[in-house]
Amino acid sequence: MDERVIGRSGQRASVVGLGTWQLGADWGEVDDKEALAVLETAAESGVTFFDTADVYGDGRSEQTIAAFLRGRPDLDVLVATKMGRRVDQIPENYVLDNFRAWNDRSRRNLGVDRLDLVQLHCPPTPVYSCDEVYDALDTLVAEERVAAYGVSVETSAEALTAIARPGVASVQIILNPFRMKPLYEVLPAAREAGVGIIARVPLASGLLSGKYTKDTVFAADDHRTYNRHGEAFDQGETFSGVDYATGVEAAAEFAALAPEGYTPAQLALRWIIDRPGVTTVIPGARNPDQARANAAAARLPELSGETVAAIRELYDRRIKDQVETRW
User: Fold this and answer.
1) 27 pLDDT more than 70
2) Angle, vertex CA 177, rays to CA 155 and CA 209, nearest 5
3) CB 93: neighbour CB atoms within 10 A?
């Protein structure tokens, strides 16, 4: 699989990575055997970038990745984790002492002395503008606790604030055919600054797979049930912030745009891969078949201008007004 450089860090990531939120919690139960099978299949399919966080299953996702990689010392996989969501979400918690404590825990969970890439995990908006926060992150690098750092954001404005900081290697942001606002300013600014873009929620929490209908019922412990209206965390993390009823109708139209040989999910992933400035896209997978199909999107042909235009028309007509004023 092709790899791209993660901005200023010089690190490399496969164009399709693996998001591992679902291997921890919040998507219903995934047992350990199945989780390890997902990681194995992704790696065998050419994936060299795993994205996790200390809060996914309260460390379970990090620990599962560590267990897998211990058994596969032949693999060269870059593991990015995130920190900051295990405490009250107030700017005062984003200080060096806490960063060191969070870093210590993630290093233990992952079984490494130095983290490849650590990202602030969608902190309160003022954090992105705080000089002391970036000084603290620079200290983690100087202490060889982390090789590089970045941020995960909810809004395009937060992304632009972070991109202006010279030490930021990457910005993780929601980008998919139902969330196009980052194309306007964020991706061009990142390219100019030499900052990597990690595209998350690429399938709009599964909407863009075309598998769901208005009658689909998700498990009670699945965020697509309990966070549909932003009850637990930012609503934009669930279905990209799109109203579910609108989303399933628009997703059916989207699925009809898939060229021969593409599944709807692969169409969404290929669309993201083709956007200038994207470093890697990190779909999740609940089973090996999904992991294999996601990775295969990297080998599909670039989308035609006609298909790209049709996707844009659908977004402008059905989705844009719901999401662009908020994120």
Assistant:
1) no
2) 120
3) 16
